[in-house]
Amino acid sequence: MSAFSTGASKTNSVLQTPSFIIKRTGESVARGINCSHSITGYYVILWYKQQQGALKLLGYLNGDAVNLEEDVKGKISFDGEGNKHSSLTISNLTINDSGVYFCAWDIHSEQSGAKR
Known about the structure:
- By secondary structure, this protein is mainly beta.
- It contains no helices and eleven strands.
- It has strands at 2-5, 9-10, 14-17, 20-23, 29-37, 44-51, 54-62, 65-68, 76-81, 85-90, 99-106.
- A six-stranded mixed β-sheet has the order 4-1-11-6-7-8, with no helix packed on it.
- A hairpin with a 3-residue loop joins strand 9 (76-81) and strand 10 (85-90).
- It starts with a strand and ends in a 10-residue tail after the last strand.
- This is Ig-like domain-containing protein.
- Residues 12-103 form the Ig-like domain.
C-alpha cells in the first residue's frame, strides 16, 4: 500500500487537491493530483516529490510543453497548461512512490524556458 500526501493548499490564487491518496501496489494515480492557479504572468508549473526529507524535481510544464527529469520518464507524467493547471499521473505504484507530491509556479515567458 502506498500513501501520498499531496501538499494540498488552497489560497486565493493556488489550489492543489486532493490532500491525501491511498493506493495499492501496482495501481496507478491517473491524473489524480491536481494543481491550478490564477496568477497572471506565471507560465511554468514545477512538480516535486518530498520523501524522507529529500526534495526532488520531477519535471515542469512550460506553457503546454512537458519537461520530465530523465529518471522519472515512464513512471511519472503530467499534462495541462502552465498558465492555469496541471494533473500528475504516477504509474505502476511501488512502496518507493510513497511521499509528498506538490507543485509550484514560476514566472517566465513561454519562450524563455524554466529556470532551476
